[in-house]
Amino acid sequence: MIPFFEYNWQVRDEWFAWCSRLPEEELVGPRTGGVGSILKTLFHIIDVEYSWIRGIQGKEDIVFGYADYDTLEKVRSLSDRCRGEVTEFLKGYGEGRNEKVVRVPWDEEEYTVDEVMHHLIAHEIHHIGQLSVWARELDLTPVAAHYVGRSLKTLFSN
Amino acid sequence: MIPFFEYNWQVRDEWFAWCSRLPEEELVGPRTGGVGSILKTLFHIIDVEYSWIRGIQGKEDIVFGYADYDTLEKVRSLSDRCRGEVTEFLKGYGEGRNEKVVRVPWDEEEYTVDEVMHHLIAHEIHHIGQLSVWARELDLTPVAAHYVGRSLKTLFSN
Fold first, then answer.
1. Quick one: which H or E segment has residue A101?
2. Quick one: DSSP state of residue B21?
3. What is the pTM of this model?
4. CA geometry: angle at B11 spanning A112 and A56, to 5°?
5. B95 pLDDT above the threshold of 80
């Protein structure tokens, strides 16, 4: 599980850098598919990850409103802030499957922690795939998505 | 690792079913981003997965040409065929990390088997994200991408 978070966060940071070279109007402008804009996609990925990670720990859901995070810097800063707490959780996660069953306030079903972790990983990669199409539609080269051939920074090095 | 393959293959099959309701010209028509068409994307996912899975086993690369798989039925049949061999490999994979270092003919770098497995999983999810944008551009509802809330069929049930 952990290497996928390392991958997702490295790719996410590369998208933040990519976005910083984009005019504001392209960042927030409406796009077809996904959650509808580049910035909203990044916000949504962070929001979903953070909510589920808190949810599986039985912590109260903290709801972020996109209206409060409508610039690249605000979203990037939200990402950094949430990442600290998610990293703390991941430190205790271990290698094996966690079959503990959890419930979260926004979903009627029960899932195992392991299922939620898979969900979060797939969720981010899926939305990043959407960004890559929008980038090409802007005639820009998207951030590379390959997993092999990138040096992943270990989450727990410090 | 295995649950991600179960997820990817279930989603892939749902895309095959989705594609079967699409006119041929939309399936093969040019799209912006990714590998350039819906059908080529599905072909590419299968081709990449199969090549790497053979590669990490030290088996000779079998190169498929898209020209030979230019219909939905041919691509779906290729998917089924390759899946059998990939499943056999996955049966022996186990739960832990496989740090064995491998080389493949199409890449100068060395990777661990574990890295390649991560690569394949992320690769398919990323490309499926691209399909979801193209679906919306066609005014169609894409296949759902969520991991939680779907009953995954166990790969090794038979």
1. strand A101-102
2. T
3. 0.97
4. 20
5. no
Instruction: List Cβ neighbours of B133 (8 Å cut-off, separation of 6 or more).
Output: A31, A32, A33, A34, A129, A130, A133, A134, B33
3-state SS record for A30-81:
CCCCCCCCHHHHHHHHHHHHHHHHHHHCCCCCCCCCHHHCCCHHHHHHHHHH
ipTM given for this complex: 0.97
Cross-chain Cβ contact B133/A33 below 8 Å: yes
Domains and CATH numbers, chain B: 2-149 (1.20.120.450)
B96-113 per-position pLDDT tens digit: 789 999 999 999 999 999
Contacts of B132 in chain A (CB under 8 A): 33-34, 126, 129-130
What is the rounded average pLDDT for all residues in chain A?
96
Q: Quick check: A133 and B4 CB within 8 A? A: no
d(CA B61, nearest CA chain A) in Å: 18
Q: For B72, what's the count of Cα atoms within 13 Å in the CB-facing half-sphere?
A: 19
Q: What is the pLDDT of residues A88-129, one digit of tens each?
A: 999 988 777 899 999 999 999 999 999 999 999 999 999 999
DSSP H or E stretch at residue B101: strand B101-102
Question: Hey, of A106, A133, A143, which one would you mutate to test binding to chain B, going by the most B CBs within 10 A of its CB?
Answer: A133
Instruction: Identify which of B86, B21, B16, B18 has the alpha carbon closest to the alpha carbon of residue B49.
Output: B86
Q: In chain B, positions 83-102, which contact chain A (CB-CB < 8 Å)?
A: 95-97
> B36 — contact with chain A (CB < 8 Å)?
no
Tokens linked to A6 = 């390392």
- What residues in A contact B149, CB-CB < 8 Å? 107, 109, 111
